[in-house]
């Protein structure tokens, strides 16, 4: 939460009171000008004027052009309040299916030890990168078929967002290590959650996504950490082609080749072993 203070009272006119009562009943802490018009029946210019006055009175914070959030009355004289960045991400996605993913999901599932300062969102709608309320948002476009492995994450008793489950979080990290801090960070998350992971589901997700690099990286890591036996890994091995991929695409193409998984180990086994030590 970020707050600024002044001495203006938080008084509401009847139209603003109607708006905010309706938003509270809808459990909407963030809203758009279109929401204002739909609730109040005001014209576009009148809706903008109402919100502008509400900003001056300290009951609304502007997140970006056309997007606002309510300042809770319990904050007293606070006149600027930023809701959870995860709720902002939901608003930026609009009506399109979305879920928090990659480094953000790793953090929400407590699979990392370092803080993440970018909010990653997978969405079926193309949304440009942007900064809202002081937070950086990065959207990864997915197809409708790729929207699986998603669960609810409750922000508080009334608000939730969608987030990739633990298994999908690992899979996405293996597909785009750049959005998860690199392959060793993904490996660390895999190892940290080894007791909670459903390995069969992990393998199923990799097959379902159908990305060769993910199949290779997942198979190798599961085998390296002893999290799956040969028979469990066979479905992944059947998907392999002759092409080799780097274990970490962020690092140079160097290191030994592992024909069993068609991988070039540009991250050494010793670095991966260090993950076990925390």
Structure in words:
It is a single chain. The chain is of the alpha+beta class and 278 residues long. The chain folds into 3 domains: 14-83, Arc Repressor Mutant, subunit A (Orthogonal Bundle); 84-164, no CATH class; 173-278, no CATH class. It has 11 helices and 12 strands. It has helices at residues 14-25, 33-40, 44-56, 85-93, 102-108, 166-175, 183-192, 199-209, 212-224, 230-237, 269-276, and strands at 30-32, 60-64, 67-70, 98-100, 118-123, 130-132, 135-141, 150-154, 160-164, 245-246, 256-258, 263-265. The strands form 4 sheets. The protein has a 4-stranded mixed beta sheet with strand order 4-5-7-6. Strands 1-3-2 form a 3-stranded antiparallel beta sheet, sandwiched between helices. The protein has a 3-stranded mixed beta sheet with strand order 10-12-11, covered by helices on one side. A hairpin with a 4-residue loop joins β11 (256-258) and β12. The protein is elongated. The model is unreliable at 1-10 and 74-81 (pLDDT under 50).
